[in-house]
Write a structure and sequence with these properties.
Radius of gyration: 32 Å
Largest sheet: 5 strands, antiparallel
Number of helices: 2
Strand content: 35-45%
GO biological process, one term: photosynthesis
Signal peptide: 1-36
CATH topology of the largest domain: Methylamine Dehydrogenase, Chain H
Number of strands: 56
Distance between the termini: 37 Å
Structural class: mainly beta
Domain Photosynthesis system II assembly factor Ycf48/Hcf136-like: 558-652
Organism: Sulfobacillus benefaciens
Keywords: Photosynthesis, Photosystem II, Signal
Length: 655
């Protein structure tokens, strides 16, 4: 964290773990030419098609990562932790969470808290280890193997924490590199610490007699005990309010909150104490406006005092900001109060439904309106005070519809559920970024190199980009090709001018001006049709009909090729298939692939013979081949797979 104006400190959300009965997180908070007659089609040899099963390997980079902490330094600069099976990845955003970069790794550790005091110096904290960085998270140094808990900074230099044995409060004046004991008590298990300005700090703990709160006004050099149990001043009035609000029956004894809890001071005088009872799983949230001299009850939970089936009603982990802004997590939503809990607004339903102790790991508010939360599903942001939350990381598509990939690793993709969004990758599909430009439903996409490509939308705006999608030059398509029997289907461009399209009448059309004017160039016979062009001259097509002479359930598909841009076609062979061919992709005049709903076939002799490529138990929808070994496959259910060894094994990019 960093230094804030007085009374305006960023506050950090702490989750009370129901299962572990303890506090588990802490901190401060997208003129017609003549048509030549086709030559006769002469089927070539039929190669038997056998089913071969391959294995799916985990992606080398797309290892599952679970966000565990988020730490905004400003509305634009944000750091976060994402836990993998072996380490913690450090993420950074420099544009308010719109884009994230992995900048480093905390090795062999499971940190749950991240605290940056400026753009270069930060700490990654777990109960067992403490790591520090002085280069913005690129590399990390192990400071000690004992670790710290509930670290909280008042400014870039002064901070406080609790030792793993929970009997000591320690402090630092050099940004967390050296720590010294500030408060020690063998009778108290400290549960939280809160810095409230440059010199005021509060420490909360539990004891055999009840909760204990200490205050220091000189950076921890000396301390004053503010309360030691719930029955005496200054907690007595707030405790009576809690008991009355819970309407306890005759219960002896009542929850005494001997485990301490969470303490959050948003200024030197205004603070919140969330007391916790391990015996009853009860919770009471109290507020003070005079530095802890007097407290009032705000909300709470009776836990198991009235039967454990009453659990959950009101047990809300919360975060606080300024004098009166409160956010509390309520299983499926965030409750928001701007008047210190007197009234609440409910956020829209959150995009996850896990239990309270599992769903939200960390909430950090940078202002009354802007903040971030981390969950197992990702990092989410709000700009309206918590009423609405949008996922920012991982910013990945959930399904795939069509792709266009290049050997360099650049690629475009359209999803099934958001066909107007264009996703971009620069590393072969391991990670994807959604472009901000909005299209209509995308009918075709062609990427020619890492920066130049075309997107065709028959219901919206089509365009060409020369800078990787940042800017687009609009394209105007003929209205006649947007609907009816002339509606364009299989659209493909090999550059910004030359393209082909098929329609519902089984015509092949061509354009030489980027799609503004189209001319029919060939009429195919009725039946399944798929076309793939390698250049302005060379291309391949699959055409054929369902043939009862072979089998009532088989397709007799002819493989034809052209060397004059689609005017004339000659036969290369034929394939007897059980299903309609879905897609074809050629990398040369000899080698190509055909996908059906249940198989993937390969030819290395220009389509004369075909053999089965090993395939997982998936149903192909489309393919994009880049080389003899590298092939991308989209399935009917929206999965994206790639092989780098000709289909022996497959990597799942979008599972």
């Amino acid at each position: 964290m960093r230094e804030y104006p007085k009374g305006n400190m960023q506050m950090r959300y702490r989750v009370i773990g129901l299962g572990a009965l303890s506090l588990v997180l802490a901190g401060c908070n997208a003129s017609p030419k003549p048509t030549a007659a086709p030559p006769p089609l002469t089927p070539g040899p039929i190669h038997p098609v056998n089913t071969v099963t391959a294995h799916i390997l985990p992606s080398s980079q797309a290892t599952a990562m679970i966000p565990t902490a988020v730490d905004p330094l400003s509305p634009s600069l944000i750091y976060a932790l994402a836990q993998t099976s072996s380490n913690a990845q450090v993420l950074r955003s420099q544009d308010g969470g719109q884009h994230w970069t992995r900048i480093g790794t905390v090795p062999g550790s499971s940190p749950k808290q991240l605290e940056f005091v400026n753009s270069e110096d930060g700490l990654a904290i777990s109960p067992h280890t403490l790591w520090s960085t002085r280069n913005g998270g690129q590399s990390w140094t192990l400071q000690n193997r004992q670790g710290l808990e509930h670290v909280c900074f008042a400014n870039a230099h002064v901070g406080f924490a609790i030792t793993p044995n929970q009997h000591q409060v320690v402090g630092t004046i050099d940004g967390g590199h050296i720590w010294n004991v500030r408060l020690s008590s063998p009778d108290v298990s400290f549960s939280d610490v809160s810095a409230a300005g440059t010199s005021v700090v509060y420490a909360l703990g539990g004891s055999s007699s009840g909760p204990r709160l200490y205050r220091s006004t000189n950076d921890g050099k000396s301390w004053t005990l503010l309360f030691a149990n719930v029955s005496q001043s200054p907690l007595a009035r707030a405790y009576k309010q809690y008991v009355k609000a819970m309407a306890f029956p005759t219960v002896n004894p009542l929850p005494q909150f001997k485990q301490g809890g969470q303490i959050d001071f948003t200024s030197p005088t205004t603070g919140w104490a969330t007391l916790f009872s391990g015996n009853y799983l009860a919770q009471a949230v109290l507020r003070t406006t005079d530095g802890g001299a007097a407290w009032n009850y705000v909300w709470g939970n009776s836990g198991c005092a009235m039967g454990c089936n009453a659990m959950g009603g009101g047990l809300h982990p919360a975060t606080f900001y300024g004098p009166a802004d409160v956010w509390r997590f309520d299983l499926t939503r965030i409750d928001v109060s701007t008047n210190a809990g007197k009234s609440w607004q409910h956020s829209s339903p959150l995009p996850f439904s896990l239990a309270a102790s599992q769903a939200v790991n960390d909430i950090a508010m940078i202002s009354p309106t802007v903040g971030w939360l981390s969950t197992p599903a990702g990092i989410y942001a709000t700009v309206d005070g918590g009423l609405h939350w949008a996922q920012q990381w991982p910013n990945i598509p959930m399904t795939a519809s069509r792709i266009s990939m290049r050997p360099s690793g650049a690629g475009w993709m359209v999803t099934q559920n958001l066909a107007s969004t264009l996703w971009v990758t620069h590393n072969g599909g391991e990670t994807w970024t959604a472009l901000p430009h909005t299209f209509g439903v995308i009918a075709s996409l062609d990427l020619w190199n890492h920066s130049r490509g075309m997107v065709v939308s028959l219901q919206g705006v089509s365009g060409i980009t020369r800078d990787g999608g940042r800017q687009w030059i609009p394209l105007n398509w003929p209205q006649s090709m947007k609907s009816g029997l002339n509606q364009a289907l299989g659209i493909q461009f090999v550059n910004s001018r030359d393209g082909w399209a098929t329609n519902l009448s089984d015509q092949l059309l061509t354009t030489e001006n980027g799609g503004r004017k189209w001319s029919p160039v060939h009429q195919f016979p009725p039946g399944p049709l798929a076309v793939d062009f390698l250049s302005t001259h060379d291309g391949w097509a699959l055409t054929g009909v369902k043939s009862s002479r072979v089998s009532p359930s088989r397709w007799n598909v002819h493989v034809v090729m052209t060397h004059d841009g689609g005017k004339n076609w000659s036969s290369a062979g034929s394939i007897h298939l059980l299903e309609n061919p879905m897609s074809l992709s050629f990398i040369s005049m000899n080698q190509g692939w055909v996908a059906t709903a249940n198989s993937l076939l390969e030819t290395t002799d220009g389509g004369r013979t075909w053999s089965a490529v090993s395939l997982p138990h998936v149903h192909p929808a489309s393919i994009d081949a880049l080389s003899a070994h590298s092939v991308y496959l989209v399935t009917l259910r929206g999965r994206l797979l790639k092989t780098q060894n000709g289909g022996k094994t497959w990597i799942s990019l979008i599972p």
